[in-house]
Amino acid sequence: MEGPIGVGKTTLAQALGKELNARLVLEDSDNNPFLPQFYEDPDKYAFPAQLYFLLTRYNQQRELSQQDLFAQMTVADYLFAKDRIFASLNLSPDELKLYEGVYQLLNAEMAKPDLVVYVGARVEVLADRLRKRNRDFERDISFEYLERVSAAYRDFFFYYDEAPLLVVDTSDIDFVANPEDLADLVREINNAGEGTQHFVPRKS
Question: What are 156-182's pLDDT values in tens digits?
Answer without folding.
Answer: 999 999 999 999 999 988 887 788 888
